[in-house]
Amino acid sequence: MTQSTPAAHDDEQRTYASVAQAAAEDPKAFWLGAAQAIDWVTSPTQALDDANAPIYRWFPDGTLNVCANALDRHVEMGNGERVALVYDSPVTDTVREYTFTALLDEVSRFARALADRGITKGDRVVIYMPMVPEAAIAMLACARLGAVHSVVFGGFAANELAVRIDDLRPKAVISSSCGIEKTRIIEYKPLLDEALRIATAQPEFSVVVQREQHRAELRDGFDLDYADLLAATPEGIDPVPVLATDPLYVLYTSGTTGKPKGILRDAGGYAVALQWSMGNLFGLQPGDTMFTASDVGWVVGHSYIVYAPLLAGVTTVLYEGKPVGTPDASAFYRVMDQHDVNVFFTAPTAMRVVRKEDPDAEHARTADLSALRAVFLAGERLDPDTYEWTTKTMAEATGRDIPVVDNWWQTETGWPIAANPLGIERLPLKAGSPTVPTPGYRLRVVDPAGNDVPAGTEGLILADLPLPPGTMASIWGDDERFVSTYLSTFEGTYLTGDSGYLDEDGYVFVMGRTDDVINVSGHRLSTGVLEAAIAGHPAVTECAVIGVHDETSGQSPRAFVVLSPNADPETISQELVALVRSEVGPVAALRRVDVVDALPKTRSGKILRKTMRQISDGEGDVVVPSTIEDPSVLDAMRATLSRRAE
Ligand code: COA
Ligand code: AMP
Description:
Blueprint: H1 16-25, H2 27-34, E1 48-49, E2 57-58, E3 63-64, H3 66-79, E4 83-89, E5 94-99, H4 100-116, E6 124-128, H5 133-145, E7 148-151, H6 158-168, E8 172-176, E9 178-180, E10 185-187, H7 188-198, E11 205-209, E12 223-225, H8 226-231, E13 242-243, E14 247-253, E15 261-266, H9 268-280, E16 289-292, H10 299-311, E17 315-319, H11 331-338, E18 343-346, H12 348-357, H13 362-365, E19 374-377, H14 384-398, E20 404-406, E21 418-419, E22 436-437, E23 443-446, E24 459-464, E25 474-475, H15 479-487, E26 493-502, E27 508-513, E28 517-520, E29 523-526, H16 527-535, E30 540-550, E31 554-563, H17 569-583, E32 593-595, H18 609-616, H19 631-641
Parallel strand pairs: 4-17, 6-7, 6-8, 8-11, 11-12, 16-17, 16-18, 18-19, 19-20, 31-32
Antiparallel strand pairs: 1-2, 3-13, 4-5, 9-10, 14-15, 15-25, 21-22, 23-24, 24-26, 26-27, 28-29, 30-31
Helix pairs in contact: 1-2, 3-4, 3-5, 3-10, 4-5, 6-7, 9-10, 12-14
Bound molecules: coenzyme A and adenosine monophosphate.
Adenosine monophosphate (AMP) binds next to β26 and β27.
């Protein structure tokens, strides 16, 4: 271990190999041991229920409350005056700190206000909010009641919100009057109202956090003002014990089909895994500070802005701003300096954006980053160039060797599948690799027939079942889809949907998705959803969306459409860009639509999206299927794709 490695354990004998071996050899004993770091109402005596394999449930006889673990227990231990959450908002020029006592007070009173209006254990609540503390407060208040929250990212449009409301059938919706982007104020309330107009399912009431930058009009008898509710609720409410296997939240993510998947997270397994990860992976201890620059609408935000830091008694920084433009590329360094951040976590794309504006990292040198111990990057592949630049920047700014840790995970897993486990042992890094499987994950790489491939050979990445605690419990309301999508392709394994390889040293290399999911600026999007929006335009007869390489955002969506005769390509292209923005949301970031005469297909009618993407990215050996219907269509497509740089 080097000096800069965060100290996280008492037992100096522990190595990554010994911990991973213990987790693999006896997962039940390993995780029951880890479960002791959580305060249970009834301690689990059984680690794993495998009666329903391949669906497993962790800690079936344990009961707990996740909110009580995140807040009450720190207060009870005498740490109530420590800072739990720092709200740092350059877009509103605000910095506000909540101690554990203050956060508990507001969460508990808001939970009572919800309970007074009929929210009880098992009810669903949709949260559609910008990066304000009330978003975290709403999540924790639901957890306190055993209600199931589902946060929908603010960059999604009304239609996507409506789809989620219909799937989840929430009893209440919690929102905000507005969000503040770099150059404009986004009114959330009209988007929510529009979603409720489209949706079939109708919640009983909504709660709105009114912000001074823009106040929303509230509907009598339906919309309640958050501040009024709190003012009228002086007393909090006790946490409601739930089974470890009860749901904590549903978080929708993109899949191959246009229908979003509600990833279901249980309470107990998640709490155990996150608590374990804070010390062992991130090397963080109570009293430390973590700054995760992401959004509560994504899994990284759920786990490492809200739940994990608070569970571990670590101060979390909730940042309402961007890497650049709020006001410039100094923003991240300023936050790290001002709040003495020990671990900084963001997506590689955010570092690329910072680098573009401040290539020599001048801003890093003027900041005091003496508290910083490590940088974690996740959400997309960390390209070696961005890794090298970030490492050099942090070393120059601190005069120390700060590890830059690529970590690989998914909404489904809830915490890293692979990482450099800094709290156990700092392993040598290899650029382009998120290092090694996290203890608890047993990874394999196979060919399409399911045969293990040799080290260094790319294939489908699988994880042997059972997965460790904290990973998805199911798809909301659809165990069958859970099994058919993830658990039945190769018996006894979880299909990650990513391809990659393991090298001779057991390092993982993740190369990309094997399905129609694309990753734009660390946001996961389904090309199917974009295609569905485009196909809704009356002049479009056929369309295909692919993700093409982009220097900054990793991938960007590009659409190809065949139009009905006499349609004007120029006008329709612009209409389609606007349509995707209004139907899917600004986050889809579709900026380019090409009108073509035909799409390349196989004789059975399958559009050759992969071939199109390979040509677009300039990959050397593009495989053109022998079943191609008309090779001349592909030649024409080559010409269109080569116009990318124009
Ligand atoms: N609410 C409403 N609109 C939003 C939004 C939100 N929460 N977040 C983004 N948008 C809008 C943006 O304003 C932008 O609109 P524009 O087309 O009018 O400019 C559009 O969506 C595209 O946004 P994005 O591509 O994300 O650009 P950005 O400048 O807003 O942010 C990054 C750039 C790098 C900061 C951002 O993409 C990011 O944080 N990515 C990392 C995501 C992440 O943490 N992933 C971890 C894995 S879960
Ligand atoms: P999400 O569910 O939005 O977190 O997206 C998960 C997907 O992002 C994964 O399946 C990967 O394709 C990609 N991803 C996340 N982190 C990494 C990483 N460190 N390296 C490579 N790909 C990653």
